[in-house]
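Supplementary Methods, section 5.1.

A reviewer requested that the exact input to the structure prediction be made available. We therefore reproduce it here, unchanged from the version used in the analyses.
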Amino acid sequence: MDKKQIEYKILELKDEYLQLQHNLEKLEYVKGNIAPLEKRLSEIEEELNSLNQLLRKIAGQTQK
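The structure derived from this sequence is encoded token-by-token as follows.
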């Protein structure tokens, strides 16, 4: 992945994360099953962390 692809993927994941948070709040309000949403939120957090590390690595390489 190049820098632009990583940045785009990060934006997509952030958007999905915000949507899931909103859905989670709705499900909590109606006492719905929130476990799958919590699991996906956790997965997104891990993926964002990984992509941000990769982005920092790429940025460090281009500065040298």
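The chain has one domain: 3-63. These observations are discussed further in the main text.
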